[in-house]
Amino acid sequence: MKLQISLAVALVVLVLDFASKRWVEGALFDGQQIPLTGFFNLVLTYNAGAAFSFLSDAGGWQRWFFSLIAVGASILIVYLLRKHAADRLFCLALSLILGGALGNLWDRITLGRVVDFLDFHAAGYHWPAFNVADSAIFLGAMLMIIDSFRRKE
After folding, report:
1. Distance CA 1, CA 125 (A)
2. Cα–Cα dist 93/143, whole Å
3. Sheet architecture: strand order including 125-126
4. Identified catalytic residue from 17, 107, 116, 119
5. Are 147 and 89 in contact (CB under 8 A)?
6. Would you give per-residue pLDDT tens digits along the chain (153 residues)?
């Protein structure tokens, strides 16, 4: 996959993530929930930490720590996209992860926290809210796992 195509996929994820987060911030107030189905709500919440609110109450240093990790990961991903351009599925996976990482990085730098709004729940238990960037990272990781089982020559 050409580098330009990989970066275009990442840009699409970044734009969708940015637009959806700004829309939710404009439509809801912090903590507001809008039930859409019996198992899904839109909710506006902010996460100063990482996955599952890891280090969210660490006092502020985690903003720059996670930002630095995202920048480092993004540089590594671009390197891997160039090196493995012939492996389309792997490059698609990396492109999704790159777009998601940059989407959450944008929030961390500009807001100091990440906007989350997708809330799935069942039997009174809620999965931690997430966003388009998180979804792209998850999908990219799943594609990498699938790719790892493919025969390589």
Report:
1. 41
2. 5
3. 33-35, 40-47, 114-122, 125-126
4. 116
5. yes
6. 899 999 999 999 999 999 999 999 999 999 999 999 999 999 999 987 776 666 666 677 777 888 999 999 999 999 999 999 999 999 999 999 999 999 999 999 999 999 999 999 999 898 899 999 999 999 999 999 999 998 766
Q: Please answer whether residues 109 and 70 qualify as being in contact, where contact means their C-beta atoms are separated by less than 8 angstroms.
A: no
Statement: the pTM of the whole predicted model exceeds 0.85: yes
Active-site residue (options: 17, 107, 119, 134): 134
Is residue 57 part of the annotated active site? The answer reads no
Element of type H or E holding 25: helix 3-27
Give catalytic status of residue 107 as yes or no: no
